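Run log, item B.
One chain of 94 residues. Sequence copied directly from the ordering sheet:
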Amino acid sequence: MTKRTLGALVVLNAVLLAALAVVTVPTQDAHAQFAAGRNYVMIAGEVVGRESQHAVYILEQNSARMIALFFNSANNTVQFLAGRDLGADSGGGR
């Protein structure tokens, strides 16, 4: 085995070891909750009846309340579409 081959194998092993370390090291989840005790889920989706516009649905998990917002590109504003109490809608009545 030549010095060049041995050097290449050492470098390859170092790269593989670094890749293994990156994959196996645990990462921390990102938490961006602004109110203690509340959990929010945001989902982007299409809006029925609005062509080429999408909404952001925000669900507050503790109370099962949901709102829908969309970006109006005509005047560069975020507009409120609707709000629902999903617990009451499903008969859970929180």
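Observations after the first pass:
- The chain has one domain: 3-89.
- The chain has two helices and four strands.
Flagged for discussion on Thursday.
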